[in-house]
Amino acid sequence: MTDHLRNQITSFRQEDDEAMHEAWERYRDLFRRCPMHGLPEWTQVSIFYNSVNTPTRMMLDASANGTLLDKPPRKSWRFWTNSHRMTTSIPHPEGEIQGEDLPS
After folding, report:
1. Is residue 94 part of a domain?
2. pTM listed for this prediction
């Protein structure tokens, strides 16, 4: 099960009709389901950034005042969490996600 979920994480892609906050939630859910993934923080950030479509990546970079991957992993994670909070008003069933909390 862990190998299957880890593969889903490393091959993650934003769907064509999926908003950034929906892709973010789906990505975070994979980590919730696979706490023993063993992926370093920088890899987690890189996978998500490289998985989003070009318009989403351009929006993220513009909002971050530069390329988001040039930021430290925790700062990138905090930015995505804050962007998610700004783009959706749907509360997460597990409560607020803290900006400093990277998946384990």
Report:
1. no
2. 0.71
